[in-house]
Amino acid sequence: MFKKFNGKDDVKGTTPVKSSVQRAIKSKLVETYPKLESVINDLFPKKSQLLQVKCEDRITLYCMNGEVLLFEHYNGPIIPSLRLVHKCPDAFPQVCVDRGAIKFVLSGANIMIPGLTSATGDLPDDIPKDVFVVVMAEGKEAATAIGYTKMSAQEMKKVGKGIGIENVHYLGDNLVCLL
Fold it and tell me: How many structural domains are present in the chain?
């Protein structure tokens, strides 16, 4: 999504988010990712101002203290950025790809099922279809990407080939060039 993103050149406007909207965003995040409930007030303090940055291609970014924490495309679901994921990685559903897939994931490629179902990959059985997951890499501590599951974990294990997760945001994409 951010491969062709040009940072400041793509920004159309920046506005502060009302406190009521900020509370709604926080509650939506906790509803989607229940493990965030204990740290949500640390991530989004009441006194800090959340900024909404509207960009080209109907992308909306939510920034706080100079960091992009959330984004959404059109009026779709609000997606955590890798900056937010690195602050509390255990709060989000995770999958792990094997070493052979790392260079492809970091170049923006979609995550293929064999990279998830190999002996060194990790695909938990409770991952449903159409959810955002954090993509970890074998042997690495930090998250490498955020993706959208194209099918459930059981379907991926059954099919065994093809695209399992659509790569939405990865380390090194142009999202960090904004601020």
Answer: 2
